[in-house]
Amino acid sequence: MATDIERLVLFEEAHYDQYDYYNLDEYPCHAGGKGRTKKEIGLNTNRHCPAGHERKITEKLRNSEVKRRRTKSCSS
């Protein structure tokens, strides 16, 4: 009795050609890549920012300034 892996290997040998194997190697089936190659995923990954959370800090300061202006205009 053949196991699932052996059946899968037999199926691949019978039905896959060189192009199918190329596509399997080129496009791995994980959710993070969304059809991109490993090289593209590596190029477009988040980079470490030595300054920390710059975007979050600037957004927080900008929002606080907008709130301050809003309260000044409503109270006058």
From TrEMBL:
<comment type="similarity">
    <text>Belongs to the NUPR family.</text>
</comment>
<dbReference type="GO" id="GO:0008285">
    <property type="term" value="P:negative regulation of cell population proliferation"/>
</dbReference>
<dbReference type="GO" id="GO:0045786">
    <property type="term" value="P:negative regulation of cell cycle"/>
</dbReference>
<dbReference type="GO" id="GO:0005634">
    <property type="term" value="C:nucleus"/>
</dbReference>
<dbReference type="GO" id="GO:0006357">
    <property type="term" value="P:regulation of transcription by RNA polymerase II"/>
</dbReference>
<dbReference type="InterPro" id="IPR018792">
    <property type="entry name" value="NUPR1-like"/>
</dbReference>
<protein>
    <recommendedName>
        <fullName>Nuclear protein 1</fullName>
    </recommendedName>
</protein>
<feature type="region of interest" description="Disordered">
    <location>
        <begin position="35"/>
        <end position="54"/>
    </location>
</feature>
<dbReference type="Pfam" id="PF10195">
    <property type="entry name" value="Phospho_p8"/>
</dbReference>
